[in-house]
Amino acid sequence: MPAFTPILMSEIRSRFAHVDSCPFQGPRIFFENAGGALTLNSVVETSARFAALPDNQGRDNPAAHALMEIIATAKQDMATLFNPGGGQAFVGESGTELTFRLLRTAVMGTPQGTVIGSTVEHPASRSAATHWAQQSGKLYISVPHDNATGAVTAEAYAARVTADVRVATILHTSPVTGIANDVASISAAIRAKAPEAFIIVDGIQHASHGAIDIAAYDIDGYVISPYKAFSRHGYGVAWVSDRLSDLPLEQLTNGPETNWEMGTRDTGAYATFSDVVAYLNWLGSQHTSSADPRLRIEAASDAIRAHEKALTQTMLHGTGNLPGLAELPGVTILGGIDNPGREGLVTFATNTRPAAEIVNKLNSQGIRTHIRKADHYSGNILAPLGLGAAVRVSLCHYNSPDEIAAFLAAMNGLGDAG
C-alpha cells in the first residue's frame, strides 16, 4: 500500500506546479521525473520575488544584510538535509559543473597516482574524472558494474583499489535504471586500501528519492541538481569536506582561502533550496511527532521511499485486472524485476515494439515518459545488454496509484507493445 492517504496525496500534489497538466500539451501524467522533477509552487513564487531585487550581497545596507541572512539560513537548511558533520555547502552553475570543479580540484591537487570510478556512472562524473586524470598524468581505473542488477558493489571496487588511489568517484543512483549503490560500503572499501583518497559522490538522481546522510559515508564531496529535487534550473548544490577545501582552489587573489563560489551567486537560488527543505520538513511532520528538522527530513525520506516502492511494485506486478510490466510478454526490466535498490524508476525494453514508438504512443495519450538511447548518456548501461534503446518511466512521491493504473492500461492497450 502507498504510504500516503488520499487526503495527504491531494495535499502533496497541491504544492507542485503543473502536477497534472502541461501548459503546452494539456492534461498529462508526468513520468519524466528523472529528467527534472516537478517544481514546488513555493519555489516559483520565491524565484519571481528574488528576480526583482536589484541589490547585491556584501553591501552595508538593509537589503544586502537581508540577502546575506537568507543565504546563511539556506546553508543551515543544506546542512539539515545533507547531515554532513562538517565541511561546507554552496551553489554553482549546475550539478555537472560542480562535479567537474570538485574533481578538477581533487585530481589536480593530489600527487601522482590513480583515479578510480565505475562503468555505471553518469558522464558528468565519468567524463570529469577521465579528463582530469589525463591532464594530470594519472591512471584512470574503471570498476565494472553488474549488468544484471545495474549496480556496482563494494567488492568490485575493493578488487581494483590500490594504495595509490588519490581520487575516487561513486554514483549514488543511476538515472538510467534507478538502481542505487551502497555509498557507505563502497567508500569503506576504498578507504581500506587508500585512506587518504578524496571521494566524490554524484547524488543527482538520488536526491529526490531517499535520505542523504553524508556523515555516514566518509566522503569528501556530494553534488546534487536542485531541478531534480523539486527546485528549479539554473544552479547546482555541492557539499565539500574541509580537507577538500584545503587543496589549492581556483579563487580570487587574496580572497577568502576556502571560498568555492565564483562571483556573486543568485540569492534566489539559495532561497529556493530553503523552500525544498521546508517542504520536506512539512512532509516529515505528517509522519513523526518530532519537531526536530533533521528527524522530520528522515521521516519524509522514509515515507517517500515507501510510497515510491509501492508505486513501482504496482507498475511491475499490476493492479486489479491490469497486468504489470513484468507480466507482459517480451519485456526486459533493466536491473531485474525485484531489485531492492530500485528508487522510483522503471526502465524497460520490449522485443516486439521499438522504445521510441512506445514513448510516442504513451505521449499521445497524455503519459509523459522518456527514451534512453545507447548514446554517450546511457550507452554504458544499454550497450552491454544488447539494447539500442529503452523506455524510462520515472516517478516521484507526488505520483499517485491512479496514474500508475492509467499507465498500465495504456501499456496493455498497446497490444503487442509488451
Automatic annotation (TrEMBL):
Matching SUPFAM superfamilies: PLP-dependent transferases (SSF53383)
Ranges for domain Aminotransferase class V: 29-407
Pfam family, one: Aminotran_5
Keyword tRNA-binding: no
Domain of life: Bacteria
Xref: Gene3D superfamilies: Aspartate Aminotransferase, domain 1, Type I PLP-dependent aspartate aminotransferase-like (Major domain)
Record bears the keyword Ribosomal protein: no
Record InterPro entries: Aminotrans_V_dom (IPR000192), PyrdxlP-dep_Trfase (IPR015424), PyrdxlP-dep_Trfase_major (IPR015421), PyrdxlP-dep_Trfase_small (IPR015422)
UniProt KW keywords: Pyridoxal phosphate
Protein name: Cysteine desulfurase
Originating species: Roseobacter cerasinus
